[in-house]
Amino acid sequence: MTIKTEKLHGILKKPLSCPNNGVHLIYSAVKKYSIFDYSFTVFGFMGLAIPNFLFAIVLMYVVFSATGYPIQGLFSPMYETAPWSIARFLDLLKNIWLPIAVLATAGMAGIIRILRATLLDEIKKQYVVTARSKGMEERKLVFKYPVRVAINPIVSTIGWMLPTILGGEVIVSKVLNLKTVGPALFDAIQNKDMYLAGSIIILLSFFTILGTLISDILLAWLDPRIRFTQQL
What we know:
By secondary structure, the chain is mainly alpha-helical. It contains 13 helices and no strands. The chain is 75% helix and 0% strand.
């Protein structure tokens, strides 16, 4: 269930991290100080400033006050141990949107700030000015050169994204009563279950190394400056 939750979380973040789908973020950097740019800046700072667990508590309170329906976990009590069915799947959809929204907000806010700041630096560089002076179309220029470099910090986060998919947000999982690996590790440490805690930590370490390897390969493929050849 951890992987399902974090996978949907990643789906919500992906449109912002992908250069072809994150046109609104690129526009925010190209047309800086516009209303659109200010809107995303406010959203980014709010997403980074508000703790995820506090945002989760506020959303739970708002939903309960407006509808009278308490969201506590991924399933309602009557479907918690029930076999999979259409009704249980619909109940999952009715509950899972809140943890996905909480987890995706901070992730999207971070991507907004990173992509905008990096893209603003790249747009001012000489190679972009030279390409623009040669008459290259602005949209093609932005996507072909500065965006390709600006997504490097986002690609490099794959190293910790994989263990996050497995571990999830511990505090948010506790607040929302999510049965994920993060709370299981926390409970194992509290109960001094060294075997379970050690196994989870080793698994998270393996995913960290694997994610770092994947991010390095992607960075070398995306940015020619990172590649190097051995001198014979």
